[in-house]
Design goal:
The protein is of the alpha+beta class and 292 residues long. It contains seven helices and 16 strands. Strand 9 and strand 10 form a beta hairpin.
């Protein structure tokens, strides 16, 4: 990916129904969502110039907005068309798409009544999230001190920007300690996810994964579960506690950005990049290279 800062690039961004030059896609400093964290967003991968699972992501964008109290002023079909247009106009063949919706600067204060809803979509090149070496040998996770909140204390079913503050804190702390990402527990002390990806444990040939009741049931998570079922693997969704991690023969993460990435270390524990992880990684790669 280019070393240029994100605001200083060539190309165009779709903003409120129009394509605007990349450097002119700006918002005011008093934008309500900037102050109160109510923007919602998606992350989508581009393979061969096509956006993977575009409809599902576009639907979730609108659903997230409803959860945090506003309506996106565009249909799923309009968001899809705009996303494809941005990819085409920016000449992205392998990359990332970032749709985002937010409340504008018409009002300030906790109440958002009267704030206009804006939408932007950007597309840009995006390499392997942790690098190719990590795809082979796995990444290192450090358990975070921050926990995923309960669903009655935060809009946990939405992909809302405010929910990611603890992810930033967690990952920054992990990287400072020599790890690549963080393992998030939930408000009950159960294993939840990484900072932006779901987690799977391979135990005696079966896949165990936390029940997504206070974090996103990821689109990539569901896709990989479908691939696993086609291979005949049993999938068990349940409460998983940190003290169980040492029982896993393999651990991997799934997410749009990370795709399928093995985990080699969690705190002091070490894991092998095993055959089930490798098989699902290969199956996911094949799917994303050949989807209609």
């Amino acid at each position: 990916m280019s070393a240029l800062p994100l605001e200083n690039r060539d190309g165009v961004i779709w903003l409120d129904g129009e394509l605007v030059p990349w450097r002119e896609a700006k918002v005011h400093v008093l934008t309500h969502s900037l102050h109160y964290g109510s923007s919602v967003f998606e992350g989508e991968r581009v393979y061969g110039g096509k956006i993977f699972k575009l409809k599902e992501h576009s639907e979730r964008l609108l659903a997230s907005a409803k959860i945090v109290g506003y309506e996106v002023p565009y249909t799923v079909e309009q968001i899809e068309a705009a996303s494809r247009l941005v990819v085409e106009k920016n000449g992205v063949t392998t990359g990332y798409v970032r749709p985002i919706a937010w409340r504008g600067s018409e009002v300030i204060g906790v109440s958002a009544k009267g704030a206009k809803i804006h939408v932007a979509i950007a597309a840009f090149p995006w390499p392997a999230y942790y690098g190719e070496e990590a795809r082979k040998n796995g990444i290192k996770l450090l358990t975070s001190k921050w926990r995923r909140p309960a669903p009655d204390s935060a809009p946990t079913a939405s992909k809302c920007a405010g929910l990611y503050m603890i992810c930033t804190l967690s990952r920054d702390a992990a990287e400072a300690a020599g790890f690549q990402d963080a393992l998030m527990l939930d408000y009950r002390g159960q294993v939840a996810e990484a900072t932006g990806a779901n987690i799977f444990l391979v135990m005696d040939g079966k896949l165990h994964t936390p029940t997504p009741d206070c974090f996103l049931d990821g689109i990539t998570r569901r896709t990989v579960m479908d691939l696993a079922r086609k291979r005949g693997y049993e999938i068990i969704e349940r409460a998983i506690f940190p003290e169980e991690l040492h029982k896993a023969q393999e651990i991997f993460l799934t997410g749009t950005a990370v795709e399928v990435i093995p985990v080699g270390v969690i705190d002091e524990l070490k894991f092998t990049v095993g055959p089930i992880t490798q098989q699902l990684q290969a199956d996911y790669t094949a799917l994303t290279q050949n989807f209609a």
